[in-house]
Design goal:
The protein has two helices and no strands. It has 104 residues and is an all-alpha fold. The chain has a domain of 62 residues. The longest helix has 44 residues.
Length: 104
């Protein structure tokens, strides 16, 4: 049993420092990955639970779009082919080119 520890060389101390830093970095990255995974799992579970509680909420936009499309189709059918906007008069044709109209 040694009571007095042996002094380490500078090279040995540096190698130990690098090794410890790498171990801490790896542990930090693993903890970060675990946190992200836990967040993702929690969000997934919360979303799934919310979907079970309110299944009709996801259908509301689809139903509204279908009702709107039906209303537009109904208006088109009820119009009987009449134009929705008033017709504009056709532009008058240009007068024929003659010697009286051509500048000299």
């Amino acid at each position: 049993m040694k009571l007095i520890p042996r002094r380490k060389s500078r090279r040995s101390q540096a190698a130990e420092l690098v090794t410890e830093a790498l171990k801490l970095g790896a542990a930090w990255q693993a903890a970060k990955g675990a946190r992200e995974a836990a967040k993702g799992t929690a969000a997934y579970k919360a979303g799934k639970a919310a979907a079970k509680r309110t299944p009709g909420v996801r259908r509301v936009p689809v139903v509204l779009a279908a009702v709107g499309a039906g209303a537009l189709a109904f208006r088109k059918l009820r119009s009987g082919g009449r134009a929705q906007t008033p017709q504009q008069p056709a532009p008058a044709p240009a007068p024929p080119v003659t010697s009286a109209t051509v500048p000299s």
